[in-house]
Amino acid sequence: MTASTSKFDARADEYAVQSRIALAGYDACHELAACLLAARLGRGRHARLLVAGAGGTAQEILTTARLAPHWRYTAVDPSGPMLDAARANVAAAGLDARVDFHVGRVEDLPARGRFDAATLIGVLHHLPGSEAKRAVLAALAARLEPGAPLILAGNRGVYASHPLFLSAWSERWRLHGADDAEVEAKLGKILHAAEPPASDAAVAALLAGSGFEAAEMFFSSLFWGAWIALRAA
């Protein structure tokens, strides 16, 4: 992951609240992801999961751990403060012994470490350009067993091409107490600090070009989409 970490360092304290406002259905998306992974891997088996961009809530870990008591996690994030927030949530849930934390990028982990599944949630649209997006997906593929599932979730689509969705986003922040100036500032950050894949087809192409196959969308909320895909054999 090559996105600048500074904006996430500053957002660590508010991320848990703001992410749930920005993404309507935040918890539902994570719950469905956990259910899909459990259905694919089997709840009773021992498995190793790579959680890329784990900083902030560590919701991927907290939710899947409720279903699968034998899964262990490697959590990686380039932002130290964000990873500290995730570490605190993991500790509060009593899951410390099941999680290894690494400040850095997926590419920094040994390629020989083969994982049984991976997640990349809320990351891809922060990476500039197709090459950076393809690089992190390829890095994940290189660390997964053949046939292992990847949960990929993030914004997709050209923001300006969906003015109604942008307006609905604004209203959602107002619904949660933001005034007009705050809404304008939040939209400004989104429009200038993120570069999502242009379409669902672009996401599918990125996955196919990075070592994944059989991608299926399982969740959508305004600009947000979530997929499960398999590491190609």
Automatic annotation (TrEMBL):
User: Gene3D superfamilies from the xrefs?
Assistant: Vaccinia Virus protein VP39
Superkingdom, taxonomy of origin: Bacteria
Record's protein name: Methyltransferase type 12 domain-containing protein
- List the SUPFAM superfamilies hit by this protein, alphabetically: S-adenosyl-L-methionine-dependent methyltransferases (SSF53335)
- The Methyltransferase type domain is annotated at 52-149
Instruction: Name the species this protein comes from.
Output: Methylobacterium crusticola
Under the heading InterPro entries, the entry gives: Methyltransf_12, SAM-dependent_MTases_sf
